[in-house]
Design a protein that fits this description.
Elements lengths: L1 H10 L20 H14 L7 E5 L2 E2 L4 E2 L2 H13 L5 E6 L5 H11 L6 E5 L7 H8 L1 H8 L10 H11 L3 E9 L9 H13 L2 E9 L7 H9 L3 E4 L8 H14 L3 E3 L1
Parallel strand pairs: 1-4, 4-5, 6-7, 6-8, 8-9
Antiparallel strand pairs: 2-3
Helix pairs in contact: 7-8
């Protein structure tokens, strides 16, 4: 734990505020040394210099037609057993968290109701900071840490969200790869293309194409490529699907379709 604390303190040099994320689920054995290091660090730094924000889940039970707070109660209980009382709760949810539910969560987690925030599903991930700002999360954090600051300037951030949700045009990019059935495999590429779209005020429609499907007769694979404005070919291992990737490269070269190979 001393090494973990030393690493955190080294990262905090010359900055006003350091955000440290401890991933995983509270109670998992892999995370316990890190959570214990955080407990010690908060004690050593003092309550005005450290804050615990716990991200938790409020699932929606379709059969009952309601949000259930038990997972959040148990998660906080586990965190408190380890020795950390969360100062703020961020509750992941599909639907709005009513005031009565916030009060119930507050009562059974020992967190003030005005420190319980809903982190609801959003159509655009860049909407989330704006949603939390509207609820006052940033004000609660600076109040808790005794920091003076002006109101945040969010015009540029709102412009990014507007470009994402209301772009002026649209492009279709084909990702020709081997692991398209596991879309998370290309998460970083998907996000990079989305960012490029924001920069150019364009909606980026991604079509994940299995490279093995491009190895058959032309009549089968040609329709998959004809409607694309650009093609991206990510890396892959082994021989499987290689010929399909080469065919996509050939098509792009002959048809003058922008191509990016990784």
């Amino acid at each position: 734990t001393d090494e973990i604390k030393a690493t955190i303190r080294a990262a905090a040099q010359d900055v006003d505020l350091l955000i440290v994320e401890v991933g995983g689920t509270i109670g998992d054995i892999e995370g316990l040394p890190f959570v214990e290091a955080i407990r010690q660090l908060m004690l050593e730094e003092g309550r005005e210099n450290a804050i615990s924000i716990h991200l938790t889940l409020i699932p929606y039970l379709k059969a009952a037609g309601e949000l259930k707070t038990k997972p959040t109660q148990h998660s906080v209980q586990k965190l408190r057993e380890i020795g950390i009382q969360p100062d703020v709760l961020l509750c992941r949810c599909e639907y709005p968290v009513e005031e009565s539910l916030r009060k119930k969560i507050a009562m059974f987690t020992n967190v003030p109701a005005d420190a319980v925030f809903a982190c609801q599903d959003a159509p655009c991930i860049y909407d989330v900071p704006l949603m939390l700002h509207e609820q006052g999360l940033d004000r609660k954090i600076i109040e808790r840490l005794n920091i003076w600051t002006a109101e945040p300037k969010l015009d540029e951030w709102r412009a990014i969200v507007k470009k994402f949700t209301e772009p002026t045009h649209e492009v279709v990019i084909g990702i020709v790869g081997k692991y398209v059935h596991l879309v998370e495999s290309y998460k970083s590429l998907n996000e990079a293309l989305a960012h490029g779209g924001i920069h150019h005020d364009a909606r980026v429609v991604l079509r994940h194409i299995d490279s093995e499907k491009l190895e058959g007769p032309e009549a089968e694979w040609l329709p998959m490529l004809e409607s694309l404005d650009g093609i991206l070919i990510p890396g892959g291992f082994g021989r499987r699907g290689t010929e399909g990737k080469i065919r996509a490269v050939q098509y792009a070269r002959e048809q003058q379709v922008p191509l990016f190979g990784i």
